[in-house]
């Protein structure tokens, strides 16, 4: 039976054959050697026919031809490599590739309350963020798990993944929008037969993040091999890490946190650095149980029992007693050391907890020898939880001296000083810390057909599918205050001998006073008033509909080989609808998302704003929107020459026309080629392309956020006005346009060193019309000055028929330019030193030469973040793997290295007395260094019974601490957990 089913989105075999390896090698791919080592071409050469694999579709192109040479560098991670790395989520293994920078996972976004990205596993190639990386499952799009359109990889079926292709370069002409940085494609094994499973447990060196993973998959064929059924079920529970107590201690006793901060002295020309990097920074505008922060009583703090005492400032600082609240001997806003017990940053979750349940199934029926119809179903749920920070610090409160909770001794001091109120700050340690819970549920169905047909004597392949995907994202925030109710509750007075809220309206609506001078825990009634049980929530539904039909074949034999063609059409519709609670969104007449009236869970209260924004954080908004896309593409691979004297060369070109319902028609294209030179094993490759990213649902139709600007300067009339700021989407946005260029050299499998491969590739990406946002001031001023005319339609400050407003939205005006090198090398030693197995080494590295973002607007400067280790783009990122594989025993050592970096390339580092004048473009700093990191991972496995393997893995063997940065930590680059131990058992029957 001749099967011409490609493995990208359709069929894939249980084992890699020699033909498949030849195809991948021809594409210039450096396969993981753990895969190569297990494949030996059969002596009779019949594996091709027996396994029915004559052709393969590699993710970098739509062309399906065994002789095709892909010009775009692509890294491939095999199932064996995924297994050897022993991660509970294969996202982690893929994200370790050097070309992936800025990917998000359970260690990122843990400091966030409102982003909706907590626990979201998404890839970012070239540091261009996840919205510019296209992630596919079997070559097909996946419904987004966030309004940015980014899918959650942890919702993918993982045990049946056969390989992961990472295309390091633009692929919009082949796959459409979002493939600016590249493509990550998960290829499943649709021909698996048997039963296999995996059970794993893990824990950190600090006895936390306890993890359990249980996976099982099964597959079989029926009706003489025409009916194929595969399925998998997975459960993954990870407890997470954090939070730590107030101060500088972290969860589990981790000791690397030093409260490093970047402090601006606001002095530019005294010979000393404008910016100072300090450890053990002590904010002096709040403490754990309260601090008077300005005026004649500045420096009086309160202990847990409510007793006043003189606060211990760091840096030997003394309170100035002035209205500004400065502290003598300290930097602006911070001292060094002293009483750090009230610092809140240590309460940030280091890794979100995660519970994942995944069910996947595929049924395929071959109704003819070369034709199959199939249905896939993916039902998955991921729940995460994080704590953004300890407490809810309020540093700028005004408290009355007459407050009955204030100790009499302090009231007497007020009288002596002749004041009736004072400025006050507290961490609010008397309140429980905010908790954020996310729940993502994905329902994805694909109905497709694939096969081959003969047209006028030529073999053609077709692949069509319809996909329907729905994702529900629920975000619930618990233990968070209503700020205006809190303000009423802390303003206490005595009435008829009882302490009550001072405001009569607040009292009539349930206000119960609380004491914030010390650690007295509020009553249940007070809690219910300021922190109602039903907190902020957001309910989002995203729908995706995709229809795609593709055809490929080799209709003509030319002088140097067959001409390969691929063409197709695609239709896609994306839509979303989000509903939020009344206190965040605004009290509306209609029912809430769950059908109950708003006045049931969120009763009207004259203390609160009907327009919303009442919560301390998590003020979600209602919104909705949709867009559709129609596309057609053509791709061809033209053999140029093929001879022993000059070698073999191919030209690959593609063009795609895309019509967006929101922004019209756009063309993208690519041109590239490879040349297998006459030099044994030497191949050259190059490609250039025009790529595009369309604005996503969030950018086009963002749920509005409204705030009041009471004294906004109208530059047209030079007067201050009351204005309403509306943060909204911009339906007029157009696609970002990118130019990708890469060229490189591959030296693979020469006769003198048959198991060696190395490649070096240069890349350059330039993106224009980058979608970026402006402030309200920028929007008005750039219109007034004629700098950015498109902003003039975004506001009205002289509106006789309604309120003045400014719509803060995104525009197409910025640019991004990045360039660098990718290096990959591998070598395999069969039976090294007579050992009954194979030793392999593999190394991958990415060097980022530049990553420049430029708004191109007056008063702004291009910002190069290459080598800035507070972001996502270090100078160097390296992954090295050494492994030994025999019939029963496997061992692996892995090194991950990130180069040293800086806080910012704009800074001039200098010592006091030697600094030049600090400027906006080139400010001075005393320490611009950020350490890199080196992580060592060790693992191994042993087949204890036929088909049953026990394994272990130790990540971060050296228990390397993350580098100290000025933003708590940078989990996008550094590991915050420490050493992790993993044990498990796999079976394959």
From TrEMBL:
- Residue limits of the TonB-dependent receptor plug domain? 69-183
Keywords from the UniProt entry: Cell outer membrane, Membrane, Receptor, Signal, TonB box, Transmembrane, Transmembrane beta strand, Transport
Signal peptide feature range? 1-37
Topology relative to the membrane, per the entry? Multi-pass membrane protein
Respond yes or no to whether keyword Transmembrane is given for this record: yes
Q: Sorted alphabetically, which InterPro entries does this protein's record hold?
A: Beta-barrel_TonB (IPR000531), Beta-barrel_TonB_sf (IPR036942), Plug_dom (IPR012910), Plug_dom_sf (IPR037066), TonB-dep_rcpt-like (IPR039426)
Record carries keyword Mitochondrion: no
Q: What subcellular compartments does it reside in?
A: Cell outer membrane
Q: Which residue ranges does the record assign to the TonB-dependent receptor-like beta-barrel domain? A: 434-957
- Pfam families of this UniProt entry? Plug (PF07715), TonB_dep_Rec_b-barrel (PF00593)
* Family listed: Belongs to the TonB-dependent receptor family.
Q: What PANTHER family does the entry give?
A: PTHR47234, SECRETIN_TONB SHORT N-TERMINAL DOMAIN-CONTAINING PROTEIN
Q: What is this protein called?
A: TonB-dependent receptor plug domain-containing protein
Organism encoding this protein: Steroidobacter flavus
């Amino acid at each position: 039976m001749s099967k011409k089913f490609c493995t990208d989105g359709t069929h894939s075999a249980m084992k890699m054959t020699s033909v498949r390896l030849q195809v991948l090698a021809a594409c210039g791919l450096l396969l993981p050697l753990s895969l190569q080592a297990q494949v030996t071409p059969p002596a009779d050469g019949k594996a091709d026919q027996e396994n029915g694999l004559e052709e393969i579709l590699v993710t970098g192109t739509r062309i399906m031809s065994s002789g095709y040479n892909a010009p775009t560098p692509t890294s491939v991670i095999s199932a064996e490599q995924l297994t050897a790395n022993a991660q509970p989520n294969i996202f982690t293994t893929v994200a370790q590739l050097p070309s992936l920078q800025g990917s998000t996972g359970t260690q990122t976004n843990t400091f966030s309350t409102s982003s909706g990205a907590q626990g979201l596993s998404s890839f970012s190639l070239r540091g261009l963020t996840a919205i510019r990386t296209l992630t596919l499952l079997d070559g097909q799009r996946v419904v987004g798990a966030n309004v940015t359109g980014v899918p959650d990889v942890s919702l993918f079926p993982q045990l049946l993944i056969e390989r992961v292709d990472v295309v390091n370069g633009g692929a919009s002409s082949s796959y459409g929008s979002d493939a600016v940085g590249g493509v990550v494609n998960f290829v499943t094994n649709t021909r698996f037969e048997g039963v296999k499973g995996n059970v794993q447990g893990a824990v950190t060196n600090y006895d936390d993040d306890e993890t359990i993973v249980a996976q099982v998959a099964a597959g079989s064929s029926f009706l003489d091999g025409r009916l194929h059924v595969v399925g998998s079920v997975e459960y993954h529970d990870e407890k997470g890490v954090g939070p730590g107590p107030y101060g500088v201690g972290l969860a589990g006793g981790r000791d690397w946190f030093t409260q490093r901060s970047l402090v601006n002295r606001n002095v530019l020309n005294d010979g000393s650095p404008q910016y100072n990097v300090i450890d053990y920074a002590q904010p002096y505008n709040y403490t754990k149980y309260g601090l008077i922060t300005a005026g004649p009583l500045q420096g009086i703090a309160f202990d847990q029992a409510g007793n006043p005492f003189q606060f211990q400032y760091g840096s030997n600082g003394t309170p100035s007693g002035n209205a500004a609240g400065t502290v003598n001997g300290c930097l602006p806003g911070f001292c060094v050391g002293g009483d750090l017990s009230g610092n809140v940053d240590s309460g940030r979750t280091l890794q979100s907890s995660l519970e994942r349940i995944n069910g996947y199934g595929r049924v395929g029926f071959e109704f003819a020898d070369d034709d199959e119809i199939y249905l896939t179903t993916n039902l998955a749920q991921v729940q995460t939880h994080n704590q953004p920070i300890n407490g809810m610090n309020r540093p700028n409160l005004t408290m009355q001296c007459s407050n009955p909770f204030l100790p009499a001794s302090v009231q007497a001091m007020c009288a002596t000083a002749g004041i009736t109120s004072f400025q006050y700050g507290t961490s609010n340690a008397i309140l429980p810390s905010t908790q954020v819970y996310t729940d993502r549920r994905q329902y994805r169905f694909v109905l497709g057909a694939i096969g081959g047909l003969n047209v006028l004597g030529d073999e053609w392949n077709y692949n069509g599918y319809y996909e329907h995907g729905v994702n529900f994202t629920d975000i619930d925030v618990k233990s968070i205050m209503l700020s205006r109710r809190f303000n009423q509750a802390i303003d206490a007075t005595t009435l008829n001998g009882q302490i009550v809220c001072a405001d009569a309206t607040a009292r009539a609506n349930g206000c119960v006073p609380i004491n914030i001078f010390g650690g007295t825990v509020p009553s249940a009634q007070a809690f219910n008033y300021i922190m109602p049980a039903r907190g902020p929530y957001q309910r989002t539904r995203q729908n995706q509909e995709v229809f795609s039909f593709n055809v490929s074949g080799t209709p003509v034999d030319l002088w140097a080989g067959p001409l390969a063609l691929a063409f197709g059409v695609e239709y896609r519709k994306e839509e979303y609808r989000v509903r939020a609670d009344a206190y965040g969104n605004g009290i509306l007449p209609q029912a809430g998302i769950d059908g109950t009236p708003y006045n049931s869970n969120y009763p009207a209260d004259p203390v609160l704003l009907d327009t919303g924004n009442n919560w301390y954080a998590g003020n979600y908004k209602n919104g909705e929107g949709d867009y559709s896309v129609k596309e057609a593409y053509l791709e061809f691979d033209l053999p140029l020459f093929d001879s022993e004297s000059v070698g073999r060369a191919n030209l690959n070109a593609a063009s795609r026309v895309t019509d967006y319902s929101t922004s019209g028609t756009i063309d993208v294209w690519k041109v590239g080629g490879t040349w297998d030179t006459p030099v044994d094993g030497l191949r050259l490759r190059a490609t250039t392309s025009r790529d595009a990213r369309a604005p996503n649902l969030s950018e086009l139709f963002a749920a509005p956020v409204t705030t009041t600007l009471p004294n906004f300067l109208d530059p047209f009339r030079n007067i201050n006005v009351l204005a309403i700021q509306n943060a909204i989407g911009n339906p007029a946005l157009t696609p970002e346009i990118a130019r990708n260029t890469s060229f490189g050299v591959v030296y693979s499998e020469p006769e003198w060193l048959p198991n060696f491969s190395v490649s070096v590739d240069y890349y350059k990406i330039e993106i224009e019309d980058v979608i970026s946002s402006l402030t309200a001031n920028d929007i008005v001023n750039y219109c007034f000055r004629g700098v950015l005319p498109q902003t003039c339609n975004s506001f009205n400050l002289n509106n006789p028929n309604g309120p003045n407003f400014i719509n803060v939205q995104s525009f197409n005006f910025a640019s991004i330019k990045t360039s660098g090198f990718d290096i990959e090398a591998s070598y395999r030693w069969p039976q090294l030193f007579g050992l009954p197995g194979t030793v392999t080494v593999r190394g991958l590295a990415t060097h980022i030469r530049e990553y420049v973002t430029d708004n191109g607007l007056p008063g702004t400067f291009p910002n190069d973040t290459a080598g800035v280790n507070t972001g996502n783009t270090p100078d160097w990122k390296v992954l090295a793997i050494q492994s030994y594989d025999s019939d029963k025993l496997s061992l692996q050592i892995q090194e991950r290295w990130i180069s040293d970096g800086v806080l910012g390339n704009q800074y001039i580092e200098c010592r006091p007395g030697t600094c030049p004048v600090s400027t906006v473009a080139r400010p001075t700093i005393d320490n611009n260094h950020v350490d890199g990191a080196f992580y060592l991972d060790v693992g191994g496995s042993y087949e204890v019974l036929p088909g049953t393997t026990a394994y272990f893995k130790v990540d971060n063997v050296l228990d390397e601490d993350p580098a100290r940065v000025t933003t708590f930590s940078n989990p996008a680059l550094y590991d915050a957990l420490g050493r992790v131990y993993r044990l498990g058992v796999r079976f394959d029957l």
